[in-house]
Each structure stands twice: as C-alpha cells, then as structure tokens.
Design a protein that fits this description.
The chain is α+β, with helices and mostly antiparallel strands. It has a single domain, classed as 3-methyladenine DNA Glycosylase, Chain A (Roll). It contains four helices and eight strands. Strands 1, 2, 3, 4, 5, 6, 7 and 8 form an eight-stranded antiparallel β-sheet that branches. The two termini are 30 Å apart.
Length: 196
C-alpha cells in the first residue's frame, strides 16, 4: 500500500526516518519498474547544522524542503552522486530523510545494467549514491510528488521492531560540529545491504 500524504506531513522527522526502514522505494522509468526495501536512513532538520536548510536558510537547491512533506528532494553531492531524500513536515518547516541504502526487490537486472559490472552484488544499492544510480534517480525527480507514478514509497507489511534497529550518528557530516553526533542514522541490524 502506497504511503499517504499524512505519513510525510508529520512533525517528527526522526520518527519518520525510523519508520521508513522496511518500506519499499519504487521508481518507474520507460515502463520499467525498480524497487528496494529501505534498510538505512538519516534524519535532517533545519534545527541542526547537518541540514542544508539549517536555521531556515533557503536556496534554489533546497527549496523543495520548505514545501509540504511528501516530495522527492534530490541533490548532487561532490558533483557526481545524486542523493535521494523524502521531505517531511508542513510547508515552511524544512526537514527530510536521506535514504542511504536499499535491499533490491524488483528490477534487479535493470539495476545491474545501470550500475555496470560489480564484483560484489551487495555493492549494488549499499550507499546513497549507489542506490540512486541503480534506481535511475537523478535531479529530474527533484520536487516530484511521492504520491504519483515516477517515484513513490509503499508499505510492504514488513515490520521492523525496535530490537532490529541500530541507531548511530550520521555519516560524512563532520562540518556539523556537535550536531554530527546526533543519533539520527537508522539501519536494520545485520542487513547485508547497509552501507559500509
């Protein structure tokens, strides 16, 4: 069942980041579906220095974060990796969840074509830049509603209990000072698709 607008509009981005574990991210391009179960997320809020919209700073790049939750926020990192985020909360409150890793469920052959030859299958979608390439996600999807048919999320019925969730600081945001230590990264314990 597709996630609803109400799911995204809630005001607790950390809770949403936890609850996205086990949900399934889908893309549909040229009639070809691909999908993967979310196994790793990170929460970002305008209140902390790790966020692109820290202290309400609005730019052309992050403008979609200020809209009502339920859209794709896709940006280019280091000039080469597209990263996929789910916007949350109400209009005017900039928060989002970075999807960091997926366990492929649909369209594995297409994902492998997009990623090229890999020595280890577990490298296919085990990182935020890897999964966007495998899923065909780029800046063209930035701002797209997650309620439509190009990119969306579904509840597969998979229940990820608190005992199965590992909590840790987010990755690669040393610039955020003390905020870099916030325990806002969530992974499914023992899942082989989690980023290294």
């Amino acid at each position: 069942m597709r996630l609803t607008q109400e799911f995204y509009e809630r005001d607790n981005v950390v809770k949403i980041a936890r609850e996205l574990l086990g949900k399934v991210l889908y893309t549909q391009q040229n009639g070809i579906p691909t999908a993967g179960m979310i196994v790793e997320t990170e929460a970002y809020s305008w209140k902390e220095r790790g966020c692109h919209a820290y202290e309400g700073r609005k730019t052309a790049r992050n403008a979609i974060m200020f809209e009502t939750g339920g859209s794709a926020y896709v940006y280019l990192c280091y000039g080469m990796h597209h990263l996929f985020n789910v916007t949350t909360n109400q209009a005017g409150t900039a928060e989002a969840v970075l999807v960091r890793a997926l366990e492929p469920t649909v369209g594995l052959p297409e994902m492998q074509i997009r990623r090229g030859a890999l020595k280890n299958l577990f490298h296919l979608t085990s990182g935020p830049g890897k999964l966007t390439r495998a899923m065909g996600i780029d800046r063209k999807l930035n701002g797209k509603s997650l309620l439509e048919h190009e990119v969306w999320l579904e509840d597969s019925g998979e229940r990820i209990t608190p005992a199965r969730i590992e909590v840790s600081p987010r990755i690669g945001i040393d610039y955020a000072g003390e905020d870099a230590r916030l325990p806002w990264r969530f992974t499914i314990k023992g899942n082989r698709w989690v980023s290294k």
